[in-house]
Specification:
Layout: H1 2-39, H2 47-50, E1 54-65, H3 75-91, E2 96-101, H4 107-123, E3 131-136, E4 145-156, H5 186-195, H6 213-225
Parallel strand pairs: 2-3
Antiparallel strand pairs: 1-4, 2-4
Length: 246
């Protein structure tokens, strides 16, 4: 009987030790989680800092589809190539790469279209040494096309639609801090990056051109004489309210 009581006492002691170990482990894990939440740096309140607009290198591309029974460009394709050349002069950061299809029945038509593309580029002021032509083989039964592209600076922001924190009640307690949610302002930043005409304007202003001295001298001289410097119209007082209906 004494041996049985000692065995039960040992078992109860071992069970108590295991329970104590489990409680200690759970407490330590809870403390680690609380410490991790407490040490997590808060995200910035300003949406410009949460979703900054960055400048990257992108590309502008057009495709000229070529049929085997037609050579040269259509009127709409000529307009596309002309617009492409004008944009290259304003925003490009590299030369123009022209990929021409080879190894198909449309090789002759592609060559005639390429010559017309080059003539449009020359008429638009694109230097010959800025154009690099290379051949490629179209895959499968896809319609052959001349692909033209150049590198440019693009502005981008995002990605949007990320929700790292819950908007409602949660364990991290961010809902009680009365701060803007993470995704707020991301769409505005992304739209601004897409609409800006020159992405470099987001970094620094453009250089100012010198003032037109002859026109400035005329305006100053008129101001010195007491005349209207904005123009020669002097009939501001001819039409009066009392003259209406006469």
């Amino acid at each position: 009987m004494t041996r049985f009581l000692k065995t039960n006492a040992k078992r109860r002691g071992a069970t108590a030790l295991r329970a104590l170990a489990v409680v200690g482990l759970a407490t330590s894990l809870a403390g680690c989680y609380t410490q991790r939440i407490a040490q997590q740096p808060p995200y910035p309140n300003d949406y410009h800092e949460r979703h900054p607009i960055s400048l990257k290198e992108g590309e502008r591309t057009i495709e000229i589809f070529v049929g085997r029974n037609r050579g040269g460009l259509t009127p709409s394709q000529r307009a596309d190539v002309l617009s492409f050349a004008q944009l290259w002069r304003r925003e490009a950061t590299s030369g123009i790469i022209v990929d021409v299809p080879r190894g198909r029945l449309s090789d002759r038509a592609a060559g005639e279209s390429l010559r017309e593309v080059q003539s449009i580029f020359a008429a638009s002021g694109v230097p010959r040494n800025a154009i690099y032509v290379r051949a490629y083989k179209p895959a499968g039964l896809t319609l052959a096309s001349i692909k033209i592209n150049y590198a440019k600076i693009v502005a981008t922001a995002g990605p949007c639609g990320l929700w790292p924190h819950d908007l409602g009640t949660s364990l991290d307690a961010t809902d009680t801090e009365n701060r803007p949610y993470w995704n707020l302002g991301c769409a505005s930043q992304r739209n601004l990056a897409a609409m800006v005409d020159n992405p470099a304007d987001l970094v620094q202003p453009r250089g100012e051109a010198p003032a037109y001295s002859p026109r400035r001298s005329v305006a100053i001289d008129k101001y010195r004489k007491g005349e209207n410097p904005s123009g020669t119209y002097d009939g501001y007082d001819k039409a009066k309210i009392g003259d209406v209906g006469k």
